[in-house]
């Protein structure tokens, strides 16, 4: 099965995620990706949830395949929100003010 085309349907009223609140989008990430096996995948889902709750925008993409099937994927945009970046810095700063980015894992999908 090969991808024939992909379409950004983030703002399309026909998208099943159109008009979702942050809370609904968080639940959608859990429903769509939370059962993928492996701790690195769980880390990724938790990071996506943190991004959504801190205002990072979500992109909804429709994929069309050469066997006439379709799938929809939801992902946060590449550029995280300022609030998310500040939250990560806070999470990774010790009592002496030293920043340790290795303390936080964004996991992988």
Note down, in words, how this protein is organized.
The protein has 109 residues and is of the alpha+beta class. It has helices at residues 22-33, 39-53, 82-91; strands at 3-8, 58-65, 70-76. The chain has one domain (3-103). It has three helices and three strands; from the N terminus they run E-H-H-E-E-H. It has a three-stranded antiparallel beta sheet. The mean pLDDT is 93.
Q: Please, what is the oligomeric state?
A: single chain
Radius of gyration: 16 Å
Helix proportion: 25-40%
Give the overall shape.
elongated
Query: Helical region count?
Result: 3
* Range of strand content: 15-25%
Give helix and strand order, one letter per element, not per position.
Answer: EHHEEH
Total domains, how many?
1
Mean pLDDT over the residues:
93
Main sheet properties: 3 strands, antiparallel
Q: What is the straight-line distance between the termini? A: 20 Å
According to DSSP, the number of beta strands is 3
The largest beta-sheet arranges its strands as 1-2-3
Structural class: alpha+beta
Identify low-pLDDT runs.
none
């Amino acid at each position: 099965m090969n991808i024939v085309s992909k379409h950004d349907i983030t703002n399309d009223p026909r998208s099943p995620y159109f008009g979702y609140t942050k809370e609904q989008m968080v639940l959608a990430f859990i429903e769509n990706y939370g059962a993928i096996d492996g701790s690195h995948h769980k880390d990724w889902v938790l990071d996506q949830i943190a991004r959504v709750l801190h205002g990072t925008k979500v992109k909804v993409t429709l994929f069309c395949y050469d066997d006439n099937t379709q799938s929809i994927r939801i992902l946060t945009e590449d550029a995280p929100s300022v609030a998310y970046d500040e939250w990560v810095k806070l999470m990774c700063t010790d009592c002496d003010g030293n920043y340790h980015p290795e303390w936080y894992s964004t996991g992988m999908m």
